[in-house]
Design a protein that fits this description.
The protein is an alpha/beta fold. Helix content is 28%, strand content 28%. The strands form three sheets. Strands 1, 2, 8, 9, 10, 11, 17 and 18 form an eight-stranded mixed β-sheet that branches. The protein has an eight-stranded mixed β-sheet with strand order 5-6-4-13-14-15-12-16, sandwiched between helices. A two-stranded antiparallel sheet has the order 3-7. Helix 1 runs parallel beside helix 6, helix 1 runs parallel beside helix 9 and helix 2 crosses helix 9. It is globular, with a radius of gyration of 21 Å. The mean pLDDT is 96. The structure holds flavin-adenine dinucleotide (FAD). The site of flavin-adenine dinucleotide has 41 residues, from strand 12, strand 16 and helix 9.
Amino acid sequence: MKHFDTIIIGAGSVGLPLSYYLSVKGQDVAVIESEHSYGRGQNRAAIGGIRASHSDPAKIKICQMSLETIKDMEENHGISVDWVEGGYLYPVYEAEKETALKELLVKQKSFGLNIDWISPEKIKELVPGINPEGLLGGTFSPQDGSASPLKTAGAYYKLSLKAGTVFYFDEEVVSIEKDGDKIISVKTNKREISADVYINAAGANAKEIGMMCGLNLPVEPDSHEGGVTEPVKYFFRPMVVDLRSDLQSANFYYYQNEGGQIIFCVTPKPQIFGKDCDNTSEFLPLISRRIIALHPRLKNVRIRRTWRGLYPMTPDGFPIVGWPKDISNLFLAVGMCGQGFMIGPGLGRIISEILVNKTKKYDFILDQLSLYRQFAGTEMLK
Ligand SMILES: Cc1cc2nc3c(=O)[nH]c(=O)nc-3n(C[C@H](O)[C@H](O)[C@H](O)COP(=O)(O)OP(=O)(O)OC[C@H]3O[C@@H](n4cnc5c(N)ncnc54)[C@H](O)[C@@H]3O)c2cc1C
């Protein structure tokens, strides 16, 4: 049986960068992926938003590290991932949202984030054509942005291969063998391999992988639809997030990518749990109504394509990262919710330092994202 230092289950938003950062530190790494290529799970459903402006220390730190990496990808590795530093903008039309975001701002600034409250006039400059009626202002974080999830996955795959990672595509993990508190091997439909450490980065299937080794992980996928328009002349830069909800939906967000296409996504209300990835006939009427109400100038843009993917959700909207108590050589990097693309690169760097350099400096992240937390709170900006 072939033996590795680390086996990662899942070549997605999290598994790909992680495989690279481990391999480049000299580890012998294998990645097992049930799809026939990398990034074909939920990574390809993401619309590409990356921000450090979260509401908690763990995700802020992780995503600051993601941003550093993505911004410098072209300079450091000669690979473009279509990074656009357009910022994140939360326009506000409701007084209680203004109060909540201004309160959050104090916390965000205390973590050193470059984010501020801006006036309606400034918002109108940043997003020409946005509905001015009742606009109270909003928060804007100019150093956040977006990148292509497909190109980012491709970049990490290439870098990882070059660093020596072995990829097993078209191979599904079907069982995990244990001896006492240790995993001794994983079986795919084609082979059995072993490692010193196993990492569950199986996204929407994290729970099933957990079950294979007797672990009940609170990760339940729910489905979200996204879409993309034809390209139009570049006219606004930020990712615009409308935190309001209506009867059928919670927040929605959209931005214009490097090629001029507008990419958008909405959070259904109530959440739709399960793994159904068939498009619905409700999505386009819903999102068109909401986007045009916010940004009437978009009313004549034609939509090219829509799709439906999954958020691997946890009860409180935060990921689960760390060692479970009863299995000594399993590491969890699961429950990425709607933010796995932006979390992946930073988390990969952090986990590689924890596993290889044995650093303790990220213990605050492991504490906050522990499997054994209460799952009582909710992430305000999830
Ligand atoms: C419409 C939409 C828009 C989104 N927009 C954003 C965004 O703007 N920014 C952002 O950060 N996030 C966004 N997301 C969320 C993001 O896509 C996910 O959080 C992220 O892809 C999860 O990463 P992951 O590595 O955990 O899972 P994945 O990327 O799905 O990777 C897991 C991999 O594990 C493989 N796998 C599963 N089971 C097995 C098995 N038994 N054996 C072998 N392999 C297995 C899967 O095939 C998959 O490739 C969006 C999601 C949707 C649906």
